[in-house]
Design brief:
The complex is a heterodimer. By secondary structure, chain A is α/β, with parallel strands linked by helices. Helices cover 34% and strands 21% of the residues of chain A. In chain A, the strands form four sheets. Chain A has a six-stranded mixed sheet, sandwiched between helices. The C terminus of chain A is likely disordered. By secondary structure, chain B is mostly helical. Chain B folds into four domains: 213 residues, no CATH class; 71 residues, no CATH class; 57 residues; 44 residues, no CATH class. Chain B contains 15 helices and six strands. In chain B, a hairpin with an 8-residue loop joins strand 3 and strand 4. The relative contact order of chain B is 0.18. The N terminus and C terminus of chain B are likely disordered. The chains are: A alpha/beta, B mainly alpha. Chains A and B meet through strand 6, helix 4, helix 5 and helix 14 of A and helix 6, helix 7 and helix 14 of B.
């Protein structure tokens, strides 16, 4: 269905090729998962399927890509719109019309499909994707999962045989992601579509994939079965990591498989207490107390939030939230989109004024202060972290941060070197990778040594290694005596870093507890390892390995354990 | 299936309302009427008619909220007009305000600023200011009532690049406002309030680059979804028809100017120019249209309601032109001597006729109510014949809803 014949692609004459001699064939009706580190060329590879690369993006390509018998060299993307459907990460960015029905019909209108046929196909698509009740709705008012289903439907209605999706669920909460993935699986199994999907969180798709395309990072690509790739790849979901680490008889791709093989493992772990093992490897040679910006002395009482309320017009965003975060702990807030998580973080910065309640840091009341003053103790890394960057070099950003915080120059640069070593200070912030941008913003917000660091969805767009290093950084930042309060949908990331977990719904905290209590037992928020080893409350593969090696870790910082 | 209470009827499968062209025809009618009179009474009634129609017929779509901007623009026009008249001297017989006169020094000594302000000068400034404001409001009303994207859907494929630009602008521009809010909030996180050039650098730059990214994403998505498959048309044909349509647009603009300003323009700039423009446009579009295959999903039909709208607009404009010729004192009352302008009944009737959309246009369906009505529509089993589903909304019965109701009953019986 999709054939790549010795494809080489580079964006500029002298630059290294993004795709190097890529040669594979994807059969009709397969679900193919594309994996690779950030910047390894996933988006380029997906774009090449319908000729978006290089027709739209520019670039030099040799070799050929043939889809359903059509060569992309002679067929630009608009001519292939009836064969290949592209679905992007942010569905809203690609919507051309205003309502669900019009959006579904858009491609067909361009292709000149006869009106009665168009009407039938729109109705069918509405039913296939369960969008019938939403037909007249304005696209902007839909939830993320619904928008993504409309985006899939809008290409499906055009009668495509190949669906290409670039991280379709990375902006969605777990429930919405399930909704989108369920819809995708239905298309593969019932309609026999060929689906090519890129996804950072492999654990969601790898169990269903017929084949995997692994980008090695040097421009070469390997097509093999998921089990072969998972046996050797460095990008692996927790369940595979567990299987490989404890030597299961095969490579488990799903929780179900791993659970089948985990009987002996559960027996061996029976006596051990999960709470006494580290959930991620400690940073090598890093002694938190020895770092110059460390905040160990005089650790206070942390962050205290008492019944804060926040309305946007008639919408209640926060309905009396109480919480307490000890210094040295990472607190993770979870819950579906629109449950008030981000509002909570913004309320704590003072930028969005609260209508009731109060919050204090180390015993001092801050809820009545101005954002400029609150900033001395509470800092936020927002969801689109790059919004904070506006100067033309990393060096300039760091200097500005030092100046704003009133600390000796070089402080921010020093922090950045520890968080992400090897960033060229003269580079433009826009040219950094997502992970590097995040580290730069984190360094800027850590400058001046605030007591509380807030993060909104920091793992968006990060691959496994980047997430592991972020987890280490956040743990170190917390262990130096700060409060780290983070909002995330990423269950596996929460399993690695969280000391305390809060679950929010409808502007209220509905559950609070240690990571073991919440992630170990919840049906929705359980990590893969927790599901494999249920009813034991292990959360990460590293924790299990530690326990098996019998290395009991001593000396948790104060405040660990009960919340 | 007709459900009826003593309420206003909403035809749910026509949630889109009138054809956007009908709204533009109505708005042009308003603009022509405004251009044909400086009678403040008539203009005031006209502005009231436009505002009432907008409030009555607009939906809760984003573009519908733009009308407020036009109201501010209209006010600004009136204020500027008055301000300039006072600034450059408003002499006349009835002085109402004494301001010191100031002669500019040096080479500008011929110019005097301020001086006594007369009621007559204020009146004539008001007349021209309000006239212009009414025309601006008419355009604003069309923008608020007609879905710009549905109008654009009718853009011929020859203008494919233009269509892309306009669609992207229409989609990305509202998003830019959101970006500004987001970036400004983010800026507060870095304790940089920012003023002047600093503000431009710290807010405008990220917002603009954001807008650029979004525009590229949207353009890419449109490309991938088949927009502009007109490459089946030979480039030469496309270029030629582009030129023809451009020329036609130009001719139409000149013609409209000629029509509106008959006194001072040569005869050929009026009707002949409009006719030439229309002919060239139709030929160009037909020529291209034969080669481009594109269809419309549930297109806005140009039905009887649309025809009635156009008819009322034409009748109003014509009536006003007649008043203009037959009784110029009523259309263009002199500012001097002061006094209440005479109002001709025909002129007043012409203006009031423009209230027709209130009766003709369907009741606007808000996004919020669309949800329930759409759910209702899917919940009812549909027969092979596609029938309009009707749901009810509390409100007063008006003539048009009653008419629509009877029409639907007849349709029911017929099917």
């Amino acid at each position: 269905m999709i054939e790549f014949h010795h494809v080489w692609l580079r964006y500029r004459e002298q630059s290294a090729p993004v795709l190097r001699d890529v040669d594979f064939t994807i059969e009709d009706g397969q679900l193919v998962l594309v994996s690779g580190r950030t910047g390894s060329g996933k988006t380029t590879l997906l774009g090449a399927v319908n000729g978006h690369v290089p027709h739209f993006t520019g670039g030099m390509m040799s070799g050929s890509v043939v889809v359903d018998g059509l060569d992309t060299a002679s067929h630009p993307p608009r001519e292939l719109s009836g064969v290949v459907g592209m679905v992007a990460q942010d569905p809203l960015a690609g919507f051309v019309t205003d309502t669900v029905e019009e959006e579904l019909a858009y491609s067909m209108e361009q292709m000149g499909v006869a009106a009665p046929v168009m009407r039938t196909r729109v109705e069918e698509t509405l039913d296939i994707l369960g969008l019938a009740e939403l037909r007249g709705r304005t696209l902007r008012t839909l939830s993320g999962g619904q928008q993504q289903r409309v985006a899939i439907g809008s290409v499906l209605a055009a009668g495509v045989r190949v669906l290409v999706l670039d991280e379709p669920t990375s902006a969605l909460d777990p429930v919405s992601s399930e909704e989108v993935l369920a819809a995708l699986l239905r298309l593969v199994h019932d309609l026999g579509l060929t689906v090519v999907v890129a996804e950072h969180r492999l654990e969601r798709v790898v169990g269903y994939a017929d084949a995997m395309l692994a980008l090695r990072g040097d421009g070469t690509v390997r097509l093999a079965s998921p089990r072969e790739i998972m046996a050797t790849s460095s990008l692996i979901p927790p369940v595979v990591e567990l299987g490989r680490a404890v030597g299961m008889p095969g490579v488990p791709l799903t929780v179900r498989e791993a659970r089948g093989w985990a009987g002996p493992l559960r027996t061996r772990l029976e006596k051990a207490d999960p709470a006494s093992y580290d959930r991620l490897p400690r940073s090598e040679g890093c002694d938190p107390a020895s770092q110059s910006t460390a905040r160990v002395a005089g650790v206070g009482q942390g962050l205290d939030v008492a019944s804060i309320r926040l309305n946007y017009g008639s919408v209640m965003a926060l309905d009396g939230v109480d919480l307490r975060c000890e210094p040295g702990m990472v607190t993770v807030v979870m819950g579906r989109n629109g449950s008030g998580k981000s509002s909570l973080l913004w309320a704590l910065t003072g930028v969005v004024p609260i209508q009731g309640g109060r919050f204090s840091v180390d015993g001092r009341l801050w809820s009545t202060a101005k954002p400029r003053e609150i900033r001395r103790v509470i800092r936020l890394v927002p969801q689109s972290a790059a919004d904070l960057l506006y100067l033309d070099s990393v060096q300039a950003e760091c200097d500005a941060a030092d100046h704003q915080a009133g600390v000796p120059s070089g402080s921010c640069q020093g922090l950045l070197d520890r968080l992400a070593p090897g960033i060229d200070p003269v580079i433009h912030p826009r040219d950094l990778s997502e992970g590097q941008k995040l580290c730069l913003v984190l360094a800027i917000q850590l400058t001046g040594d605030p007591a509380v660091i807030l993060l909104d969805e920091p793992t968006r767009g990060l691959d496994y290694p980047a997430k592991t290093s972020l987890a280490r950084i956040l743990t170190d930042v917390a262990r130096q005596g700060r409060v780290v309060l983070m909002v995330t949908h990423d269950v596996e990331f929460a399993a690695v870093v969280a000391d305390q977990i809060l679950v929010m719904a409808q502007g209220q905290v509905i559950q609070a507890g240690t990571a073991e209590q919440v992630l170990g037992t919840s049906a929705l928020f359980a990590s893969q390892v927790a599901k494999v080893l249920y009813p034991q409350r292990w959360l990460t593969p590293y924790q299990v390995v530690e326990a098996l090696e019998g290395q009991v870790v001593a000396g948790r910082p104060s405040g660990w354990g009960q919340s | 299936m007709v459900a009826q209470t003593a309420g206003r009827l909403v035809v749910t499968n026509r949630t889109r309302g009138l054809h956007p062209g009908a709204w533009w025809a109505w708005a042009l009618g308003c603009a022509v009427v405004a251009s044909r009179t400086t009678n403040l009474v008539l203009l005031a009634v006209l502005i009231a008619v436009i505002a009432f129609t907008v409030v009555w017929s607009r939906t809760d779509a984003p573009w519908a909220r733009a009308f407020r901007l036009y109201v501010w623009l209209g006010l600004l026009i009136v204020v500027l007009r008055l301000g300039f008249r006072i600034l450059f001297g408003a002499k006349g017989s009835t002085v109402v305000l004494w301001l010191p006169q100031w002669r500019l020094p040096g080479v500008f000594s011929a110019v005097t600023l301020f001086g006594p302000v007369s009621a007559e000068a204020v009146m004539s400034a008001l007349q021209s200011g309000v006239q212009l404001a009414a025309m601006v409001l008419a355009v604003g009303a069309a923008n608020a009532l007609a879905n710009p994207k549905r109008l654009l859907a009718a853009v011929p494929a020859a203008l494919y690049e233009w269509g892309t630009v306009v669609i992207i602008a229409l989609t990305v521009f509202p998003q830019l406002a959101e970006s500004v809010v987001r970036v400004r909030r983010a800026r507060q996180l870095r304790a940089e309030a920012g003023r002047g050039t600093h503000l431009i650098r710290t807010v405008a730059m990220p917002v603009l680059s954001d807008g650029l990214d979004r525009s590229l994403l949207l353009a890419g998505a449109m490309d991938s979804r088949g927009y502009g498959r007109s490459s089946l048309v030979r480039p030469a044909v496309r270029r030629a028809s582009s030129v023809m349509i451009l020329a036609a647009t130009l001719a139409l603009c000149v013609g409209a100017y000629g029509l509106l300003d008959t006194g001072r323009t040569p005869w050929w700039m009026g009707l002949p120019m409009v006719v030439t423009g229309l002919v060239v446009a139709v030929v160009g579009l037909r020529w291209l249209g034969l080669r481009v295959k594109r269809t419309r999903y549930r297109p806005d039909r140009f039905g009887s309601r649309e025809a009635w709208m156009c008819a009322t607009a034409v009748v109003s404009a014509a009536a006003m032109m007649v008043v203009d010729v037959v009784w110029p004192v009523a259309a263009f009352p002199a500012a001097e001597p002061l006094g209440w302008p005479q109002v001709s009944l025909v002129g007043l009737g012409a203006v009031l006729l423009l209230l027709a959309p209130v009766v003709i246009a369907p009741t606007p369906v808000m996004a919020a109510t669309t949800v329930t009505s759409a759910a209702h529509a899917t919940a009812t089993p549909s027969s092979a014949v596609l029938r309009p589903t009707i749901s009810t909304e509390v409100g007063s019965t008006d003539l048009s809803s009653a008419q629509r109701y009877t029409a639907l009953i007849r349709a029911e019986e017929a099917s």
